[in-house]
Design a protein that fits this description.
10 helices; 31% helix; S-adenosyl-L-methionine; binds S-adenosylmethionine; Rossmann fold; tRNA (adenine(58)-N(1))-methyltransferase catalytic subunit TRM61; transferase; 26% strand; tRNA processing; Vcp-like ATPase, Chain A, domain 2; 360 residues; alpha/beta
């Protein structure tokens, strides 16, 4: 899809990675400059260097990494024209729709083309993606990007309202993916487009349960089977490099932490019995609107907890032995950060040809 050469050339699309939050696409155009809070860079200076290079700014303000685009990086860097699909959902949908090299797929709507790029790479030049978008300006922009990214032969983009006018192919595709506000209106059309000679699959992406219920009814009415709904939830893992400490030191810290907790418990008991004596209503300065506020104390406790358990070295290691300088540890966040959407999957199983009769 994109250049596979080792070195960057004029006219290449590259991904400029500045920070995890600041990732942008750049078309290398000698004569132009890139200005950012991490300094300024001449496009011409990037020509001829290997993809993946770290480049210092001309005014010493910082550096950038210049990366080869991939569908994953494109999803992180693309200009948003709509809400988009992110990698957790893309991977899940691709897998459950059994999209693979050579598959024929329909998607609607195209939106910002995030899902399209991943599908195009998966199906390769032996597969095909029919993508539909009813917003004309979005359709034109996506078509332009597909062509610039070398996907023009793999993707056919049609500007149309699929709920009203249906798709442009019949009995052709292995999978249909609908990311539309009213997917139920496109399900009969999707059934027409799906292959009838082999098992075919559909997925509808909807943010709320009411949409799921209407979609499930429509899938049932149209004869789809194995209707299953998944919710994707994100639980990030944080990876840190920490300095390990000897067991004795870790035990000391744990003891101090335990003591602090006990002091706090005693303090709370004393405070609540004083309130009872003074006949005051139960109020807690740590509680606002039913939510516990993070006090500095509790924050300190958190730090203590984070520091200790992963940082202990083998008890058999003698104090004189040097400790490893850094070790990687990961901590799973207790909070589920994001509900992305509900994914409703179903299958269309080929019906036996009517001419076949079973003889006893
Ligand atoms: N999956 C896309 C991505 O990953 O970038 C994002 C799709 S966006 C959320 C939904 C798109 O569907 C919008 O661009 C909208 O214009 C388009 N759309 C809504 N109803 C449509 C319809 N009936 N026919 C075709 N496109 C439609």
């Amino acid at each position: 899809m994109w250049s596979s050469a080792r070195d960057i050339a004029a006219g290449d699309l590259v991904i400029i990675w500045q920070t995890r939050e600041l990732i942008q696409p750049l078309l290398i155009t000698p004569g132009k400059d890139l200005n950012s809070r991490f300094g300024y860079y001449r496009h011409a200076d990037l020509v001829g260097i290997p993809y993946g290079s770290k480049v210092g700014s001309r005014n010493g303000k910082g550096f950038i990494h210049v990366l080869r685009p991939t569908p994953e990086l494109w999803t992180m860097a693309l200009p948003h024209r709509t809400q988009i699909l992110y990698l957790a959902d893309i991977a899940f949908i691709t897998s459950w729709l059994d999209i693979k090299r050579g598959s024929s797929v329909i998607e609607a709507g195209t939106g910002s083309g995030s899902f399209s790029h991943s599908v195009a790479r998966t199906i390769g030049s032996v597969g095909h993606l029919w993508s539909y978008e009813f917003h004309e300006a979005r359709a034109n922009k996506a078509r332009e990007e597909f062509s610039l990214h070398g996907m023009a032969d793999i993707v056919t983009l049609t500007h149309r309202n699929v709920c009203k006018d249906g798709f442009t192919v019949d009995d052709t595709v292995d999978a249909v993916f609908l990311d539309l506000p009213a997917p139920w209106d496109a399900i009969e059309h999707a059934k027409k487009a799906l292959k009838k000679t082999s098992p075919a699959r559909i997925c509808c992406f909807s943010p709320c349960m009411e949409q799921v219920l209407r979609t499930v009814s429509a899938l049932n009415d149209s004869g789809f089977t194995d209707i299953t709904m998944f919710e994707t939830l994100l639980r990030p893992h944080e990876v840190h490099q920490i300095s390990p400490q000897p067991l004795t030191q870790a035990v000391e810290k744990l003891k101090k932490l335990e003591q602090k907790r006990e002091d706090k418990r005693q303090h709370q008991i004393a405070r609540s019995s004083k309130r009872k004596r003074d006949d005051l209503p139960e109020t807690d300065t740590d509680n606002v609107g039913g939510k516990r506020l993070r006090t500095q104390e509790s924050a300190e406790e958190d730090v203590g907890i984070r520091d200790i358990p992963n940082a202990v070295v083998d008890p058999g290691q003698s104090a004189s032995q040097p400790l490893p300088i850094k070790m990687p540890v990961s901590k799973v966040s207790p909070d589920v950060r994001g509900h992305t959407s509900y994914l409703t999957f179903a299958r269309l199983v080929p019906t036996a040809p009517s001419s076949v009769t079973i003889q006893e």
